[in-house]
Design goal:
By secondary structure, the chain is mostly helical. The longest helix is centred in the first third of the chain and has 27 residues, at 3-29. The protein has five helices and two strands, in the order ααααββα. It is 58% helix and 5% strand. The radius of gyration is 16 Å and the shape is globular. The chain has a single domain (3-147), classed as Four Helix Bundle (Hemerythrin (Met), subunit A), CATH 1.20.120.
């Protein structure tokens, strides 16, 4: 992919990610505060752990793309300061659009530069932008399956849910 094509693909992916931010925010807002330790299986993250993971890693992935290198992922323990879904929403709304704007400012040449993800994947930055969007949607989907068992309601994501009709 040449730099002009990379910039066109990035512009499309950035616009798509901006639309996903709204749905992700709705899902995080829908997490009930009463049972943040809920997990559907012992191997699964807790609801609060998953909320933190989405809020912190969406920002981290985008900033790593903008920086042209991957740094260690953020600490999603209690030390991160996100103690409730409301905390996560505030951070997400502030940090993720800002990180996305940093990616938007990259040139086509910067987007074609290969970035190394800890020796596991080496790909152009634009490829990691696609992965960042998939990562966000994947974990938002996981979190949405936690909502009803926790006593919450699933918000509309790509249209109404059974709880929003």
């Amino acid at each position: 992919m040449d730099s002009k094509e990379a910039k066109a693909v990035a512009d499309f992916l950035i616009a798509d990610f901006e639309n996903e931010i709204q749905a992700t925010t709705r899902v995080i807002e829908a997490v009930p505060n009463g049972d943040l330790d809920y997990r559907p299986d012992p191997k699964s993250k807790s609801a609060l752990g998953l909320v933190r993971h989405i809020a912190l890693e969406d920002e981290w992935l985008l900033n790593c793309i903008a920086n042209g290198e991957f740094t260690p992922p953020p600490d999603d323990s209690d030390a991160c300061g996100i103690m409730s879904p409301a905390d996560a929403v505030v951070r997400y709304k502030e940090k993720v659009p800002a990180a996305l704007n940093r990616v938007r400012a990259l040139t086509g040449d910067q987007l074609t530069n290969v970035i190394d993800l800890f020796g596991m994947i080496q790909a152009p930055g634009v490829n990691f932008l696609a992965m960042a969007a998939k990562h966000s949607v994947h974990h938002r989907g996981q979190l949405s399956t936690y909502l009803r068992p926790m006593g919450g309601r699933v918000p509309g994501i790509y249209g109404p849910s059974a709880d929003t009709q």
